[in-house]
Specification:
Largest sheet: none
Shape: globular
Number of helices: 5
Number of strands: 0
Distance between the termini: 24 Å
Low-confidence stretches: 1-22
Radius of gyration: 13 Å
Oligomer: single chain
Order of helices and strands: HHHHH
Structural class: mainly alpha
Mean pLDDT: 80
Strand content: under 5%
Helix content: 55-70%
């Protein structure tokens, strides 16, 4: 199942024209992410946390990502690159603007 999620994320990154390292420039992230629906934004944001070892608490996130191999229970403790943190903040801002559920 992880392989399918990873392939989906890679397809999205490729579609958005991201650099080869899997990160998005701020402009590309805002442009591509703004057109996504709330569910896709939720998935994209939480996929970043899952990839970096976050231990989820909600039933929805546990069903989608599980906690296998998780190491961090506090979001602020999750080691992410600057680009990943910026992308998460952009996604959260778009989610707020669209009125997405938390």
């Amino acid at each position: 199942m992880f392989i399918f999620r990873a392939l989906g994320a890679l397809s999205l990154i490729a579609a958005l024209g991201a650099p080869c390292d899997g990160t998005l420039s701020t402009a590309a992230a805002q442009e591509g992410l703004s057109s996504m629906c709330c569910g896709d934004l939720w998935y994209r944001r939480n996929e970043i946390f899952a990839r970096n070892g976050y231990c989820f608490k909600t039933d929805r996130a546990l069903r989608v990502f599980s906690n296998q191999g998780c190491r961090f229970y506090v979001e602020g403790d999750v080691p992410m690159s600057r680009a990943e943190r910026e992308e998460v903040e952009i996604i959260r801002a778009i989610e707020r603007r669209k009125g997405c559920e938390a």
